TrEMBL record:
Residues 25-76, 85-164 form the Nitroreductase domain. The lineage of its organism: Bacteria, Bacillati, Bacillota, Bacilli, Bacillales. One of its GO terms (molecular function) is oxidoreductase activity. This is Nitroreductase family protein. InterPro entries: Nitroreductase, Nitroreductase-like. Pfam families: Nitroreductase.
């Protein structure tokens, strides 16, 4: 790769095959500044999310965002304590949901897959804009449904923290050693050929 990677990324992430560095430099920190994200920058993330592929082009994903102190406080009520501890300073929180039904009321079997693609686009554009994101599965979905008025025909997938990266030493000590880019399993472990568990030749 021609682009020089940040040392913390290069230390923990080495690709098996050459790829665009954006896939390596995007990771999920826990330390955030309490710095406001300009609206045009924030909306660019959801513009990217808008263009993700989806089955039948149904675009089942929706996002509910919290930017004001009052809105974020509402989100804090359903975020698990272990996550809330580090995300108190986060200036923008978002919940990603997806419609479980097609336009004619049949089950949309790809809604979660499609919402995941949309979140991936959002996360990459956030990194392009100099922001960091951290998606959380640790929250009470029923409480979130009630607090946000999410209809029963939508599944709730994740809470996403969005903002500018803060210093490591702003975190509680128990989080500091985890504030590094995580590695990934080798390509050879996730790729099969022909049938399940058949290694690629």
């Amino acid at each position: 790769m021609t682009q020089v990677l940040p040392s913390e990324v290069e230390t923990h992430r080495q690709p098996d095959h050459e790829i665009n560095p954006q896939f390596l430099t995007r990771w999920s920190p826990r330390s955030f500044k309490d710095q406001e994200v300009p609206e045009d920058v924030l909306l660019s993330l959801f513009e990217a999310a808008r263009w993700a592929p989806s089955g039948g082009n149904l675009q089942p994903w929706r996002y509910i965002i919290a930017r004001t102190a009052e809105e974020r406080a509402s989100f804090h009520t359903f975020i698990a304590p272990g996550n809330r501890e580090w995300c108190e300073k986060v200036p923008v929180l978002a919940v990603v949901i997806s419609n479980t039904q097609t336009l004619n009321g049949n089950p949309n079997t790809s809604h979660a897959f499609d919402a995941g693609a949309s979140w991936g686009y959002l996360a990459l554009e956030a990194a392009n804009q100099g922001l960091v994101t951290h998606a959380m599965g640790g929250f009470d979905r029923q409480q979130a449904r009630e607090a946000l008025g999410v209809p029963t025909d939508y599944d709730i997938h994740a809470v996403i923290a969005i903002g500018y990266r803060g210093p490591v030493d702003a975190l509680a000590e128990k989080f500091q050693e985890r504030e590094v880019p995580s590695s990934r399993r080798p390509v050879i472990e996730l790729l099969f050929e022909g049938t399940f568990n058949q290694p690629v030749k």
